[in-house]
Write a structure and sequence with these properties.
- It is a single chain.
- The chain has 180 residues and is of the alpha+beta class.
- It is built from 7 helices and 4 strands.
- The protein has helices at residues 3-12, 23-44, 54-72, 77-100, 102-109, 123-129, 133-144, and strands at residues 113-117, 120-121, 152-157, 163-167.
- Strand 3 and strand 4 form a beta hairpin.
- The chain starts with a helix and ends in a 13-residue tail after the last strand.
Length: 180
Amino acid sequence: MDEYSAALMRWFGGDMPERPLAFSQVAARAAVVYLLGLLLVRIGKSRFHGRPSAIDVVLGFMLGSLLSRGITGSASVSETLIASSVLVALHWCATAAACRWHFVGTLVKGRAKLVVEDGRLIRANMLSSHISEHDIYEAMRLAANINDLSLVKAAYKERSGLISIVLYPPRGAPEQASSP
């Protein structure tokens, strides 16, 4: 066994441990896997902390599961990093395509759905989005600091799952142009 292999065995328990890992080896694996996982997420431009869509959430769960296996030694570190890299690359390609072609964005991220229009609930869209009237009022309080549905020009269940609120302009104020 050369010096490099001996150091890997001593510090990390090898790529795929044959016996239980020592605490120091788990700690060393955790540090390396964390740093490499962070690098992968940064390269992949994932939005775990911003407005994650379903595609981001799925990647997050899968990466968490994969990376933890590399830390505990139930999977080899090299296989864990290869599989994680492939997932991040696929995610990157899918989100890049979603930015360039609307139909791909709709396919992988979904679409916004109108749930309130002119102060009226659109119950069919609410039902298909699994949104209750209580959810609408919560979003109104959190996003617009209001509790009166008649003040809402429109509300959408966004692709991220959040509910956005568009208010009528205050009386006497010029109305702003809305984007499509």
